[in-house]
Amino acid sequence: MGLHETRTKEWLLNIDYRKRETFAYSCEAYARVLERAKTPADRRALAKEYGSGPRISEDSVDPAEVASIVAEAAAARNGWKVLLAQCAPPSRPRSGQGQHSMKTMGWEGQLKKLEELLLGETP
User: Which of the ends of the chain has fewer CB neighbours closer than 10 A, N or C?
Assistant: First the structure.
């Protein structure tokens, strides 16, 4: 359990590399919303206000996406989790086309799968 790491790199947050700027702008905007809002209704209103006009001049970031993420975060109980989820790398299935891996199958399932492979049968 924990974050992904290699021998040479350790990621503090599980953020998609291509979404790093989006994450940064979203965090900054959401922090400002939290700073100014006293109630959940205030958070939603401030997020809507944030999304009403262009606030980002970067070409590498989609302002509409940032506004959408901030609005979703403001509506959630824990908006920081929303920010992480929206900017996380896409998940990849651990095995073939969504099939169970041999590690997660019981021994009966493993035996059946092995028989299918040996006999050339497909389910």
Answer: N
Q: How far is CA 36 from the centre of its chain?
A: 26
- pLDDT per residue, tens digit, the chain (123 aa), is 445 666 676 657 888 989 999 999 999 999 999 999 999 999 999 999 999 987 787 788 999 999 999 999 999 999 999 999 999 998 866 555 555 554 556 777 777 777 777 776 655
Instruction: Provide the whole-model pTM.
Output: 0.65
Nearest to 54 by CA among 36, 66, 40, 43: 66
Strand partners, 38: none
Can you give the residue ranges of every domain in the chain? Answer: 17-86
Six token digits for residue 51: 């999304």
- How far is 32 from 50, CA to CA, in rounded Å? 10
